[in-house]
Amino acid sequence: MSADLTEKTDRYERMLTEALDAAEPRPPAESPLGVAAAEVREMASSYLADGRHFRATDDPVNALASFSYGYGWLDAGVRMGLFAVPADTELFTT
After folding, report:
1. pTM here?
2. What is the pLDDT of residue 92?
3. Which domain covers residue 34, as residue numbers?
4. Cβ neighbours of residue 66 under 8 Å, at least 6 residues apart?
């Protein structure tokens, strides 16, 4: 079980990091939707930082939960049209 948890935690940290790099805010930053995109990105980035903190303190369960939540925030933002993503990516459920 421990190896599965480690593998999943590694995978979700990598996926969230790649997703943050790939997602580009779509609406202008000063528009209400641009503000929403910035807030979604901030939440995803915060969950990435939290997950890395939990990992560093040997708490892989909360690290995985944080990476998963952050990824979910960003994926929801993509589905709502707040972010443009490359057509060839499999990171999002567009």
Report:
1. 0.89
2. 77
3. 2-84
4. 47, 48, 50, 51, 54
